[in-house]
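PROTOCOL LOG
Step 1. Enter all chains and additional molecules of the complex.
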Amino acid sequence: MSSKLIKFPVDRAIDIIPMGRIGVDLNANEINRPMEETETFTKYVGGSPANIAIGMARLGKKVGFIGRVADDQFGRFVVNYFDNETIDTTNITIDKDGAKMGLAFTEIKSPTESSILMYREGVADLKINPVDVSEEYIKSSKSLLISGTALSQSPSREACFVAMEYAVKHGTVVIFDIDYRPYSWNSMEEVAVYYSMAAKMSDIIIGSREEFDLMEALVDPKNTSDQVTADRWFECKAKVVVIKHGKEGSIAYTNDGEAYKVSPFPVKLLKSFGGGDAYASAFLYGLMEGWDIDRSLEFGSASAAMLVASHSCSDAMPGSKAVQEFIDKAKAEHGDMVKKL
Amino acid sequence: MSSKLIKFPVDRAIDIIPMGRIGVDLNANEINRPMEETETFTKYVGGSPANIAIGMARLGKKVGFIGRVADDQFGRFVVNYFDNETIDTTNITIDKDGAKMGLAFTEIKSPTESSILMYREGVADLKINPVDVSEEYIKSSKSLLISGTALSQSPSREACFVAMEYAVKHGTVVIFDIDYRPYSWNSMEEVAVYYSMAAKMSDIIIGSREEFDLMEALVDPKNTSDQVTADRWFECKAKVVVIKHGKEGSIAYTNDGEAYKVSPFPVKLLKSFGGGDAYASAFLYGLMEGWDIDRSLEFGSASAAMLVASHSCSDAMPGSKAVQEFIDKAKAEHGDMVKKL
Amino acid sequence: MSSKLIKFPVDRAIDIIPMGRIGVDLNANEINRPMEETETFTKYVGGSPANIAIGMARLGKKVGFIGRVADDQFGRFVVNYFDNETIDTTNITIDKDGAKMGLAFTEIKSPTESSILMYREGVADLKINPVDVSEEYIKSSKSLLISGTALSQSPSREACFVAMEYAVKHGTVVIFDIDYRPYSWNSMEEVAVYYSMAAKMSDIIIGSREEFDLMEALVDPKNTSDQVTADRWFECKAKVVVIKHGKEGSIAYTNDGEAYKVSPFPVKLLKSFGGGDAYASAFLYGLMEGWDIDRSLEFGSASAAMLVASHSCSDAMPGSKAVQEFIDKAKAEHGDMVKKL
Amino acid sequence: MSSKLIKFPVDRAIDIIPMGRIGVDLNANEINRPMEETETFTKYVGGSPANIAIGMARLGKKVGFIGRVADDQFGRFVVNYFDNETIDTTNITIDKDGAKMGLAFTEIKSPTESSILMYREGVADLKINPVDVSEEYIKSSKSLLISGTALSQSPSREACFVAMEYAVKHGTVVIFDIDYRPYSWNSMEEVAVYYSMAAKMSDIIIGSREEFDLMEALVDPKNTSDQVTADRWFECKAKVVVIKHGKEGSIAYTNDGEAYKVSPFPVKLLKSFGGGDAYASAFLYGLMEGWDIDRSLEFGSASAAMLVASHSCSDAMPGSKAVQEFIDKAKAEHGDMVKKL
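Step 2. Run joint prediction.
Step 3. Record the structure below.
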């Protein structure tokens, strides 16, 4: 099957507008020890949709962003960083009520064990206001990517739904990256309610098996079948549903009844996080290039493998040539990672 | 046309479960003066879905309720009142965190001029929690009525959406009474977003022209056509859409393309509020009895006329015999109030 | 001894400025039943310092007020009421952020059993702002009365301390009426801390034994001696300390080492609340008239007796002639109520 | 004159208990540039009373602490650090409601220009609860140091006043380090009210001219005289008042009418902050050693000079031998810094 199932509108100035979390990552430089004993941290742009924006810009796409940043040094840092990456920052608003940038201090205890200390109280990115969402901006883009954490609190939640309403109205493809983070939500019922609402309005849905379970907790709490899950959303508006299974790899279902599985590329891990955003940006890049699902999946999986071997989740995003070289080399060594189910 | 378009499930223990606002009305006894000069107030049960519950119980229906009340004298007052009306109160939870009953002090300056002084800060009815919503309870009812004000704040908002998800899952008819009250909402974008979400899941939608305008402010802000509005929701799940035009009367659209208009019965007004809930309960009563739309509309309009001539919005709800007698007398005097468009 | 110990400044335009709570009382008309079964309520001005203001105005004093009211019918009601009583309302500010008047629904189950259902969430009277406190106003008054509930929350708490600082600076006599109401405070430690701070700055302190216990919970938690309590505050700034013992009557200690006890006048109770504010206003009236402590106490006790036999806590405040007539009649019947200890 | 004016109680297990702010400083490693361009940060313990605790421990005093920390890696980091410095941490409580450690990101644009980006929203140190304050602990210490920022919000504010009440009750010397930080306060009236209350209960008061101006804004807003200021607090309980004038040096007033001025030691600045806490700890060390005021001032000033030449505000606190060597060398080069006024 071909990703032609997804018809991206043509003649639009922007390829993709990620919307939601943007913050500052402070990654421990002294690794393989608990954060209590860390001495220094390196500063990076962070936040899942921000990482995806950087990833797609590095791959050559025209990228916008809808978000809100602090009126301070860290707010200016991330906007400057985006500007340098040629990401359009005209729709990033500056919070004038003292909200701060979210912080994520990451400790790397071992290649497989890490934790994140979050500063997310009253953060700027959850203050995006519905009135800050420009209908014209969304109309000028081929796609809109909603990152699930942006649905966790008002007014960011309503801003996302407004953006999705505009996208549906103007034929902008809606991508929903579930990105569940427990710290922002008030109850599991809220999670189920708002994830379902977003999924009903989306063309492409990407999440882990656990994230889809959260989403269908009310309507089908006992389901464990990926196919049943995918079919549920195909009955609404979705055309591609990607369900991730950690080290087992991930499966892309399409609404023509097909499914492709990709296994992770073998790689020496530095850390156990950051791969997902690379995966999403490279996979979506493939779809926007008009590639088949299997090639897009391979591209996503390769980019993810490159990221987990790097110190940052944003600054290390690869260009398309580097990803292709990684794929060529890895396939020569390990064989094909994608198969049709 | 026949209201048979709406298929209420059979063999269910409860006819209707209104959900949302329940409070205490304190109506000025000294009327035709401003509230500054009022000396005494009479206490009634209040809140739109509570009034509808009482209205339908008086008409002989088996009525439940999903709501939350204060753990104080006023909370016990409303539950006692419901018990006396044979309304099932098993799914009314008692707030243990000190929330109070909402209050509505009403002044009647003249038969056409009145105002309401609301006490709605941190009220119990907006604290209904998603975990308080019983799937079994909703499954045991023929219909669920969501009152729009319950969507204005969390966690009541999510509780409503959970209830609607369960209703859709089990074929319980969803009725959405928009009931817009400006004091509870944070922004007009929120109103549009959540009203639209509720409308998409509803079988019957009832509101004023102004309320429908609020609902479609994002997707079709310039529309003034009732038919366009009705058709929008027929494309989702709705089968009956009622749009009210104040003194001009109201129109019921059905998804088989027909429309009926009812004009208000001439009546000597005591006050300018309270008619809507009587209208909704008597109209829905007609539909549940299997009556045609026109007869149901006439019944609703008659009950509304009786209410605006009374001091309370709840205690004065009429039984079906009284409504029929009112209709017979009024039609003899004024002629037919309903016509097919 | 003579109340000359308290030197009220002369040549000032205002006799007393009470500061703090002002609200609306809604008293059940159907008494001797629980509020669940009450049908109607009568509306009065309420709140301890508001009652004292009315009491002193009725006794002929020039009364001001520092407070904050809602921008609604109830806010206008209390200001109109004060204006009619010739209380100066120029320093009552109107809240523009939607705060409401506090409400007190009173039920009278029996002459000795009653309860109050309070609406105090986000009330206007606790929003008095320090910047609303006029140094000139306090300088123009002989005395300032701080009602303890006004210390329970910010910014009212700080406004009171600012007012007391100005009073101390300009020789305005500071009266502290402890008036403890549990619903507004966050912790008993707060109560002890802020009551002590206010008491240190006060010339006259009035409270029940239980209220003084709360005040000295940190510094002398085991003390039960009224004399020890009085002496503690005489070491600071106090000259008169009144400690109430419910039906046992109350004792006034003066910093020249004397003490007078007054027993309650026998009276047929209608309700068990409202006497305290009448007591305070008539007692303070006596002191301002230059009367001896014993006569002032008698006057206070008589006014209290008259109030508990009435339906309201404000509207029933007596004039000085009525109080004197009550005293003359009661003493003829029951003998003297005051004795020197 | 001799600092014998301050009588520290003898036979107590602890020399000093600082109370209040404790957080994490993240100091830019790449200096002389704005924080937008900073790449890495080094982590230190921070917060004025925490710095003073470390300073006094390094000088050989037995130090306790009353504070509250987060239940996370940063909370454990600061407690571990204190333990290593032999500071008693038994009265540091761990917040179980998710409060985070305050963060201070410092940028050093030039030796004289720097700024701090604070994360102080809902921080653990302002959640110290009055019930966490142990009367026994304060009774077991010679002195209690209250840092002014701890007065900026509830419940920390009340906890401090409770601690001061206990200290006064048991003869523990109260030291008030004004330490004004604008970000935590709601209004300048609050600042004036609570600073005055703390000052009235204190034996030693340390602050800048600007901080004393804030404190007397209500009672004497036009005063510019240090002597008038010092005399005001001598009339309450104070025995030593230190007023700082930035680069002009600082003056210590004593309640026997004397005053000593100390000028800053010439030193090559690395940064423009951090000197105050070193000054306070070394000055108080001198007083506790029974030194004269002039020698204590010199010691404080020398320690301050050493700190502003270092990268951290805590980790660089010197021992007494190092301070003395610095003084000997500096005086040989620059002459005496202290003079009697």
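Step 4. Note key features.
Residues 225 and 340 of chain B are 17 Å apart (CA to CA).
Residues 293-308 of chain B form the longest helix (16 residues).
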